[in-house]
Amino acid sequence: MSVPVEGLTLGAVSAIVEKKILTDVIKIYRPGDPVFNPDTGQYEPGPPVGIYEGRGGIFPSGDPGIVLHLEGQAYVDDSSSKYKLLTPLDAPVASRGDTVSVVASADPAAVGRTWRVLDVGQSSTLAVVRTTFLDQNTQSGTGTSGGTS
Question: With a threshold of 0.70, does the pTM exceed it?
Fold first, then answer.
């Protein structure tokens, strides 16, 4: 007599991935509303608005890509440092232009680095984690950089 064996559910797989792979603390934020500066008479970027801080992981998305530029033709999203952000499915979806930073990591060189979100986080009917494609803004060998470009 055989005993029925129940397979892993997506929820069980998600829990394993979150515990074993999404071990860093990441922050996703976007520019705040412009603020008027009466001294200059100009609107200036407001303080960033945080949309998520919690578990996540940032991973290289392969080797740097090569895009042939045609003279006079701009290619806005040509990225030489492609990465993927993995977040739990219950985290808010990042939007194009948001910034992602590493707040805490087992790798000290990752802390303080920032990335620009290239497109809205992916969604799927068969998802374990959410994947968002990124382009690195900063790089530091000391793990102390934190600016954006």
Answer: yes
